[in-house]
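Closing statement on the phosphoenolpyruvate sub-project.
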Amino acid sequence: VVDVDGVQIGGRDVVMIAGPCAVENRSQILETAQAVKSCGGTILRGGAFKPRTSPYSFRGLEVAGLELLALAREETGLPVVTEAMDTMQVDAVSCYADMLQVGSRNMHNYALLEAVGEAGKPVLLKRGIGATIEEFLESAQCILDTGNPNVVLCERGMRTFETATRNTLDLAAVPMLKHHTRLPVVVDPSHGTGHWWMVPAMAKAAIAAGADGLLVEVHNCPEDALSDGTQSLRPEKFRTMMNDLRAVAEAVGRRCSTADTDHVVRPLMAVG
Ligand code: PEP
Ligand code: MN
């Protein structure tokens, strides 16, 4: 079980990590974080340093993004996970984040794996786009070998011949990883499919397959998102999904937090 500031990943509860692909501005992250919290999300995600395939895409607010994540944590009480793309970013990211993310593109970056391990905070390690299970576990071992036992594995889809989906989500990786390791396993159906409307179905399937948690992109206004809007759930869809996931979790002996029905998702007042 990996403890992220009081949230246990790998216990009975299925943990929901949710938030925008990237931190874009104050109102976007605060509104989205409030929505995540009110819908039962347990950890807030959001990229400040963004690895983008095209050099012309939005690459994140960097340290300003980390500061906004810290503000969102203060307002919601949700722990925060965000990515460090480079060894030089690890100090800054670990000053602000409760959990450090190593992205798919960096799963083979052994210097980074060592640096995030040594930072001492829990690490969310995403599977490389073309990495075998064995390579994935070897990368996890690089972090563990620094003496940091708090590694969570994330299946996020891989590159195949299929182009209808952004990646091919390998749900068979869940029981396979669990067969070979005691590390918690979470699934990212957002990057795994690339389509918001596929996310609820694959989230249910991931829980049924034994995932300890999900990582889902949620945006207060996906049509305006600077990155990954097409795979981001708007808050209402996220709320419905959360309520639907509970029955699946219970069917496999797990628990899943549900939306707070008294709380209406509305834009924050007085955001600058
Ligand atoms: C992300 O989760 O922010 C991300 C960039 O995903 P991936 O590394 O899986 O592409
Ligand atoms: Mn994304």
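DSSP finds nine helices and eleven strands in the chain. With this model delivered, the sub-project is considered complete and its resources will be redirected to Aim 3.
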